[in-house]
Amino acid sequence: MKQNLREVNGNVNSFFTKNPDAYYFNANGEIRCQSVHGKSRNRFEKARLESEKSVVSIEEIINHVNDFFSIIGITKVENPKMSPDDIDYEEIKDMYCLEDEKELIWMKFTDDGYLAVVAQSNDINFDIPDCEEDYDKKREGGKWLHTTSGILIHKLHKRWDTSFVLVFPLHRERCTYDRHDIETAVGNFLIANGIPILDYYSHNF
Known about the structure:
Elements: H1 5-10, E1 23-25, E2 31-33, H2 42-51, H3 58-72, E3 81-82, H4 89-95, E4 104-109, E5 115-120, H5 148-155, E6 165-169, H6 179-192
Antiparallel strand pairs: 1-2, 3-6, 4-5, 4-6
């Protein structure tokens, strides 16, 4: 059910709650994040289901984010659509008076218009594996070679739209939440308003 602003204003804290379905308990009773590695299929299936929903316009997504920002005390971003080639994190930090250049929420899309991921920090990228055999490859040091969103986009036989990203600097007016919490809340708010997100659980981690 879509959320009008009056309903949200009275229940804003609910959007900062992480989705319990983004996690699972392993055989030892330890909590783990849903994954795209090994035999895990939950995130693949969720991406498939999201990809069957209708695309929502960039303008509507921007409006929803700014509506939510106005409620939690973050300055609206009138023109968040940016060319990746023009992104200068230090310049954004100075322009929006940020304490850290990682104080950003950003979103990237597929070339057929789907919002693929809601993320935070200064690590915008368009990673994607060449083939399924690369999904579980690791870098030297043990980190996964490819991002989860890149793996999901490849699995769905989609491609990145590398012409733009949405970048929302977190200029705080009265907001006390950190950027990780805001990432979670923005993703949840978009989902509550009917916006499909292919990497459905990413903003919970």
